[in-house]
Amino acid sequence: MTKTIRPLLAGNWKMNGTRASLDQIKAIGDGVKTPLSDKIDTLLCPPATLLYVATALCDDSPLAIGAQDCHQQVSGPHTGDISAEMIADCFGTHVIVGHSERRRNHAESDMLVRAKAHAAHEAGLTAIICLGETAYEHNSGQTLDVLKRELASSVPDDSTAESTVIAYEPVWAIGSGLIPTRENIEEAHGFIRSELVERFGNGGAGMRILYGGSVSGANARDLLDIPNVNGLLVGGQSLKAVDFLAIYAAFERQFA
Ligand SMILES: O=C[C@H](O)COP(=O)(O)O
């Protein structure tokens, strides 16, 4: 772990959560109010329907609230979409773009992801840009080729350490209970770091690289111990406060 990079614990609720789940958001917001919260950034991305209420609910908490996607344009005839400006208007500070579920379910290309990340930057949001190989690509030794292509095509030129977070999420590890080996994660994150430094210099050296895919309270500390893992992007285990806070506790142990 590069200790000078401030770690980030981010939760992605995906298409889960209704008003009945607001008590979980409140409990997470309260649970991350600890003496170490000045060393660890925390973020929760509920569905867009809960975004505005969630930001109000966590007003007095260090927990940031973000969205799971944005349109690449500011406004216009795009039924069902939301813009980065709308997220900022709800006091959201981050937006996930290029998650593999959107790349797969909505045929999102690298260039579209790049445009969405750029739109996020223009709105003053931090873009969390997701990358990662499929099981086939993993098994056929193409992981680094995929990461190289996705980094070059999905990350906009205006990216900085403040405006951009990279999330490495092997598609086959998402929701499967499977996790790459420590060596695989170290290699992937080290490769991402070297590509970022080559392209963005100091900005790339300071950019956070999160690992995502079957993260839990049981494996979080081991993951955080891997060089260039600057935080975690959590799906299923972010839905309940008790699970998310168990992962937060691993951050506290690692960075105390
Ligand atoms: O955005 C989160 C990831 O897709 C990971 O999901 P998961 O923790 O349920 O495997």
Automatic annotation (TrEMBL):
Its EC number(s): 5.3.1.1
Superkingdom of the organism of origin: Bacteria
GO MF: triose-phosphate isomerase activity
Keyword NADP annotated: no
Residues at which substrate binds: 12-14, 175, 214, 235-236
Gene Ontology BP terms: gluconeogenesis; glyceraldehyde-3-phosphate biosynthetic process; glycerol catabolic process; glycolytic process
Metabolic or biological pathway: Carbohydrate metabolism; erythritol degradation; Carbohydrate biosynthesis; gluconeogenesis; Carbohydrate degradation; glycolysis; D-glyceraldehyde 3-phosphate from glycerone phosphate: step 1/1
Keywords: Cytoplasm, Gluconeogenesis, Glycolysis, Isomerase
Active site, per annotation: 99, 169
Subcellular location: Cytoplasm
GO CC, any one term: cytosol
Catalysed reactions, as listed in the record: L-erythrulose 1-phosphate = D-erythrulose 4-phosphate; D-glyceraldehyde 3-phosphate = dihydroxyacetone phosphate
InterPro entries per the UniProt record, alphabetical: Aldolase_TIM, TIM_sf, TrioseP_Isoase_bac/euk, Triosephosphate_isomerase, Triosephosphate_isomerase_AS
Family: Belongs to the triosephosphate isomerase family.
Role played: Involved in the gluconeogenesis. Catalyzes stereospecifically the conversion of dihydroxyacetone phosphate (DHAP) to D-glyceraldehyde-3-phosphate (G3P).
Quaternary structure and partners: Homodimer.
Protein name: Triosephosphate isomerase
Source species: Rhizobium lusitanum
